[in-house]
Amino acid sequence: MNIYRNPAELPIFCNAVVTIGSFDGVHFGHQRILRRVVELAEQHGGESIVITFDPHPRLVIYPDDDSLHLLTSTEEKCRLLEEAGIDHVVLVRFTTAFSQQSPENYIENFLVKNFHPHHIIIGYDHHFGASRKGNIDLLQRFSEKYNYTVEEINRQDVDDIAVSSTKIRQALDEGNIESATQLLNHPFTLSGTVVMGQQIGRTIGYPTANIAPSDRHQLIPANGIYAVWVVVDGDRYTGSLYIGNRPTLHGNSRSIEVFIFDFNRDIYTKKIDIAFISHIRPDKKLDGLEALKTQIAADNAVIAELLRNV
């Protein structure tokens, strides 16, 4: 898959089948759109293209609003789009000026000029241009002039629940990993760098890797203990993840720590990916280090058994 960041460096696409959106999470609903894009590209001997934005539009339009927590980093999003079979991803730098162009200008001087689309596939709630006034009706009005077709993909449901990034964020905020996984149609993944911690885990036989998230806007699920898969240098391991304020150790800041099973390597400064499989229990205060050691052993036994069956 090719990734482009500069529209001026785009090649001339052949029978381009294009979709546009933030695609945060690349969830079940997004995947329906992507399947249709790939299907049409194959039918017409064309190329499948996803146009997405970096940074997320809300971070630009509402710069003082820190409530948005992203489901995927740009890197993770691109990985999921590649898994979906997309040929090209174009990461458009979203700016205030870009957001303020008229919908007509957006179609003519951005979409048509850069991509010469043969087909445009959009989700049921897609809007664009200043004040989000552009919609499928406007795209269809220009379709004959620029010789493209437009197709809208209806809302997707999972067990009668409408899939949206907002619902997935709510599930993760509640520690409901199973529901989030079902709506995403893949595990939620947190990416970060291993940083130095207090190294207390080493003193009780459970050395953990402290994680600094790659993106300060990335969502961190509810506090607690999780069964996870950990990817280090392309290899996958099982592990136990802790998110919380470490009340047993009188901590005063939120910590993200992972204990990787059957692992004994120095991975400081390395980037790792953590895929959430199940929420084991909430965080709780224990009576000292010995009680913490006993609880970790019990948690890890539950997690090891659970992950053997996944």
Description:
The chain is α/β, with parallel strands linked by helices and 310 residues long. Helices cover 32% and strands 28% of the residues. It has helices at 28-43, 57-61, 74-83, 96-99, 103-115, 136-146, 165-173, 177-184, 200-203, 289-308, and strands at residues 2-4, 16-20, 47-54, 88-93, 117-123, 149-153, 157-158, 161-162, 189-195, 209-213, 224-232, 235-244, 255-260, 271-281. The strands form three sheets. It has a six-stranded parallel sheet with strand order 1-4-3-2-5-6, sandwiched between helices. It has a six-stranded antiparallel beta barrel with strand order 9-10-13-12-11-14. Strands 7-8 form a two-stranded antiparallel sheet. A hairpin with a 2-residue loop joins β7 (157-158) and β8 (161-162). α5 (103-115) packs across α6 (136-146). The longest helix is centred in the last third of the chain and has 20 residues, at 289-308. The protein starts with a strand and ends with a helix.
End-to-end CA span = 29 Å
Order of helices and strands: EEHEHHEHHEHEEEHHEHEEEEEH
What percentage of the residues does DSSP assign to strands (E)? Answer: 25-35%
Helical residue percent band: 25-40%
Categorize the overall geometry. Answer: elongated
Oligomer: single chain
**Count of DSSP-assigned helices:** 10
What's the alpha carbon Rg, rounded to whole Å?
22 Å
Rounded average pLDDT: 91
Structural class given helices, strands, pairing? alpha/beta
Low-confidence stretches: none
Number of strands: 14
Widest sheet: strand order?
1-4-3-2-5-6
What does the main sheet amount to?
6 strands, parallel
